[in-house]
Every structure is written in structure tokens, then in C-alpha cells.
Automatic annotation (TrEMBL):
Entry similarity comment: Belongs to the cullin family.
Name of this chain's protein: Cullin family profile domain-containing protein
Region (Disordered): 367-401
Matches recorded under SMART domains: CULLIN, Cullin_Nedd8
Family matches, as Pfam families: Cullin, Cullin_AB, Cullin_Nedd8
Compositionally biased region (Basic and acidic residues): 377-395
All copies of domain Cullin family profile, residue ranges: 452-689
Amino acid sequence: MIGAGRGRGRIRAPRRLTMNLPLRQAFTKDEVDFEQTWEVLHKAFREIHARNASNLSFEELFRNAYKLVLKKKGDFLFEKVKQLEIDVLDNNVRTQVRRLATPTILITDTNDSSSIERRAAGEKFMLQLTKSFQEHATEAGMITDVLMYMDRISTSEGRKTSVYTVALALFRERVLQATANDELAVTILELLEHIILETIALERSGEMVDRPLIKASCRMLENLYESLNEQESTRLYLTSFEPKFLDASREYYRNEGKMLVQEADATTFCSTARRRLKEEEDRCQQSLSTNTEPKIKSVVEQELVSAHITDVINLPGTGVKNMLDNDKMEDLQNMYELVKRVDSRLKPLRDAVHKRILELGNEINTSANQIATEPPSKARQEKKDTESKGKDKPAPAKQLSQQTVAAINWVEEVLKLKTKYDKISERAFRSDNVMEKALEVSFQDFINENSRSPEFLSLFLDQYLKSSGKDKSEAEVDTLLDNGVTLVQYLADKDVLETYYHKHMAKRLLMGKSISRDVERQMLVKMKMRLGNQFTSKMEGLLRDVELSENLTNGYREHMTKLGEGVTHKIDFEPSILTTTVWPITIPESDRACIFPKEVELVKESFEKYYLSKHTGRKLTWLPHMGDVTMRATYEKGAKPITYEISGPTYCMVILMLFNEHERLTFSEIQQLTNIPPDKVTQTLLSIAVAPKTRLLKKEPMSRDINPTDVFSYNEKFEHSFRKFKVALVSEQSNKVETAEQRKETQKKADDERGLAIDAAVVRIMKARKTLTHQQLMTETIDIMKSRFHPDVAMIKRKIESLIEREYLERGADSANPSYNYLA
């Protein structure tokens, strides 16, 4: 504003003088009367201050000033001008300003009428002061143009300061730093600052104020300096007003913060804080100075946000917990942006989100474990089969076990929770890396808090990779599996998941329950991308064995057809050839000596002969406890016999076919004729002689237990509501879920495999490094192992000791600094 005003009134030296002699020669021939010349200039300068300069000849004024400077009268002229400015400021400008500096401005009464009167008086005072400054600056600019030559000579010699600079400095000294009036013991500057601060306080309370008037006042202070040097840091705005503004703002926001925490909810606090920051930004742009913007924002952030944000985040009922639970995206975004301003690491928000996810995750864990351990409901035990219109339709699928239900519920709830927080991260936290890492750690913590999470995740994947998942579309199954694999990244003990998944996949493929091999391969590709080749190598071996078994079966059938024996056997034989090192199968010694029916024995011997002709040096071990059969049984029911198609374990077929040749057999006789282990005989007989829906045999005496003296015979009165049905072992669970003892065995096996992995890792490290300190070896071993499981430090130490005993390593000579050397 000052520059613009000065530019409009600027008077420049004439380009050419209307005389024959050069200017310097003309002025040197005549003596100059200083007083007379000054009188001309003085009168003209008075007219300028009276804003009546339209009739002045500025060329003549410039000549007069030029003559005085040329005759070495510049210093006198400078002092005369300075005195003139003092006189104008003291008698005209200051008087006009003081007239409006009434005591009303400083009244602190909160009465409405007094407040309105005080505000009006303050605005009049500001208006007069800024108007007086603008006029003074314009007039000083015009006078400076007249004295241009004097300024150039004086400033080049370093003797004097520019007239314009002195004029503004005098305004500061004679007006702003003067007392407001005899009744007010404050300077005009202090009164101005008080009015500006009061006006800003009114605006913060919601009142409309005259922003251009405040802007004009602040510009005035920005154009005035503490000294004639006019250094940037000495602007009155920076040295006087801004510190007071920041102090007043600091007190205001400190009190407002305390009030909001006590009276408002978290949503109101966040919206208020963001509104305040925006208001201060606008105020600096439109009323104050843009240089103040970062400073006042820092005050708001410290006093309003930083001092209270932790309390606001944890406010009961309205804090971050409530926002998360109710998907309040806008509120969470406001909270995130506020915390981001005061803490780049977002610690209070991270802690609150982490705490809530842990709470919800532990609830999911507790619920799943309760489902897995509670006794089956009476409704499930007594539920009857749904009748079917067609008698030749298969029976409905068996209900899922509680373990599987618990696993599916657990994974689905975790995925639901993850989907919820992924959405919050994207929409509210702007996919901030710090928050995404916090979410990852939170999910890792509660997932790994549940010791059964690897088993649950494997059971979930197993359920949808089995043929029972065919009720869903391919896209739905793919999405479910993708989501399941996503959780793998959170598991610390990935090797335990590998153990379970390996076992479940082997059972799916062996029992023919896999949804399809293509889906199995796709699943392995997904896992390989997440976990690497080591995780999937054995599982890929399972698929290779199944495919080789199919090719071998087809080859055997062609071979039998050529021999003309395919029709003779009347048995559709589908062997599965399993590589011992690939399949997770324990072979009980007692299961190997089963005596098969002679029809089956012929096929068995025929296949062995064919297989060994193709593969020399190999040995086949038959595992009847892993097989299953489908057989037909015909019952004479009046004129039309009824044929049932019965599916069941191999042992079921072995026992049932005994009754083609025997009318009655005791338990002991059955065991002797089949050589099946007694516990397996008991389990099978419970399924085909005691279970109410599959009593293919009669038992005498009839009871729920099997005793060595019990007698069994063919049940010619057997009936079933379906022509095709399956005999399930009484104690068998449909998804082969582990018992507590089996789970301990699995963990023991995993620990043994971990020990071997640690052995191998230590040897590889030492072979490459030759010598390492104890701490270095521990650190490198943990880094290698943590991708598969969370290594136990004590186990690593035990394995190092074992390697020393086996002479793979030796201790270093310096016992004070433990180290190890590799022994080649």
C-alpha cells in the first residue's frame, strides 16, 4: 500500500532545463540565499502536507533544492525538512489520532452496549491512524521526489539516511510511540495492538469484523522499523505486534483446549481444531501477514492439539474406539490429520488403533476356542436326515465338525476385521505407511496370540479346497482362498502352517476330496509368492505323485485288457503310489499285514507284478487303513431285490466280505481272519453293527460296546433311506481334525524340524564367515529363521552347543569375548 501510494505521488527530475547555460554553470554564477530558498520549499512542503499540491511547480522546487545541495547546503536542508516533519506529526497527525483515543477503548466491561461502543471506538481509532499513516507516507514520498538530488548525494557519501526513511521513522517516534492521551498511560502503538487483538478475539468468537482495516494496520506496522537501518527483523510488526498476538493466541487456545476436553466430544474437538487452523490460515492471508501463518499454526498445534490429543483419542464413548467401531471415516480422517501435524510417527493414534484391534482380535480368538471346545449341541446330535424323493440319490453331506466350524468362523471374522481396517486405512488414514505398519503389527499380535491360528487357517483353506466347496462359484472360491493366503503373512510360525497344510492337502488328494488339481496348483502358486519355494516343495510333490498314480493306473488297466483279465477280476482298482519322503503318513507296523479277500488279493498281486516290472529296486508297502472302497450289496426284498452302493473304509470291505462265506463270526474270529489291529476292528464294527443307520451286521448281544465274545452275522433285514450311502467310522471326524494329543505331536514334530533348520542355518553361516562372535551368529541365525518361524533363543544356543560337540564348530580363544570358529 505504501509503495503504491508513493508511486502515484512520485516527482521525477526534469529531463531538460529551459536555459542556454548548463545547469551547474547557471547555479554557480549567482549566490544562493538559503533562507529565501528554504522559505519557498517550506511553503510548498506545507501545501503538500495540506494535500493541496496541484498548483505547485515541481520543476521549480527541484531546481531550488538542487541549488542548495550544490552550494553545500544539503545538511541544513535535511535538518530543516526533518524539523518540518516533526512539526507536522506533532501538531497535526498526532493530535488527530489522540482525539479518537478515548478511555472507552480500554473498558473491559462485558455489557453488550459497552462492547458495541468499545468496538466502534476502536475501529474509528484504527481507521484514523491507518489513514494518517497512508497520507503521511504519500506526502513523504512526494517530498522525497523533490529532494531526490540531495538524497542521492547524501546517501552515496554515507552521511545521511533517505528523507523517506526518516519521515517514516519519525511517524513511529512522534506518533506511535507517543502516549495515547493524558488519561491513558499507554502509547498509541500499544493501544492499536490492543484494539487489533480485541478485534481478533471477537472474530474468533464468531463476530464479523473489518478485515481490510486490520490488514491496513498490520501493513503499516510491517512498513515501520525499530531503527533507520530497516533490517527485516526490526519491522514493528515482527518486534512488537506479532509476539503479543502469539502470546494472546497461546493463552486463548490453551483455555479453549481445556474447555473442549471437559465439555465436548472427540468429534467436536477434531472439527473445532481443524476449523481453528483454517481460520488462522485465512486470518493471516486476509488480515495479518503470511509470514505469521506457520507461527500461529504452530501455536494452535501445540496448545490445542498436542496438549490434549491423547486425552481426546481416549475419550470414553466418543474417542477413537467409538470412531473405529462405527466406521466414522470423516472423524477418523480429522483425527489422523490432527495427530499427523504434531507427531509424524502418529504414536497416540497408533496406540489406540493397536489396542482396539487387539481387543477385537482376542474376542475372535476366545469365541473360536469356545466353539472348538464346547460339547456338540443336542440338536446336532439328534438331527435327522432329510428325506429325498428319489431313493437312488446320495445321502446329504455330513455336518462339519466343531473344529472346522471354529476354524471357518475364526478366519472369516479375522478377514472381516481386516477388510474393515483396510478400508479405514485407505479412506481415513490416506494409506499412510506408518498406520499400515501399525495395522500389520496389530494383526500379527492377536493372530499369533492364538496358538491354533496355523491349524485354523489350514482348516479354512482345506474346507474350500475340498469338493464340498463346489457349491460356490469359481470366483467366490478364488476370493476366499486369496483372503486366506493374505493372513499367512501375519503368522510368525509359518512352518507349523506348512505342517498342517501338508497333512490336509495329502488327505484331500488321497481321499479324492479335492475340488480340482488346477485349483490346488493355483493355491500353491499363491503360497509360493508369499512364502517361497521351500514352503511348497513337498506339496508340489504330492500333486506329482497323484498324477503319476493316475498314469500308472491307466497303464495297468491297458495292460490287464491286453491280457484279457480285466473282466475276470470285476474290480475297478485305483492304487495311489505315495513317495515315503513326500507324504506325511505314519505307517503303523500292525496295519501292514492285513489279510485281504482272495478277489482283492489277486488284483493286489497282479498290480505288484506290473509295477515292479516298470520300476526295479523299489518296494511297495500297502496301507489299507488309508484306502476306501465302493461296493454293492444286494438284499432280497420280496419279488424285487434291492441293491445298495456302499462307500466306506477298506477295513469295512474286508470285514463285510467275510460274511459271503461265514454265517456267524465272533470278534476274535474276525480279528484272526483279517489280521486287522483290534482297535481298528472295534472301530469298524461299531460303524457297521452298532450305528443305527448303517447296521449292515447284526450283533449279539446288542449293546453300545464291542466285546471279544460278541457274535456278528449278516443282517438280511437291513434297510436305508438312500440307495447310495457312506459308512463313516464312529470316531472319525469328517475333516480329520487333530485331537489335543495329536496337536502336541504336531508341535513336537515342528520343533524337531526347527532344530534341523537351525543346525543347517548355523553351519551355512559359519561356513561362509569362518569366524563370528556369539552375538553376530545369534543375530544372523534369527534373521534367516524369522521368515519361517519365530526362533527361540534358547533353542539356537542348544544347537550351537550340539554343533560344538559334533565338531562342526569350536569356541574362540578369547573367553571374555565369546566367538566361534568353523571346522572344515
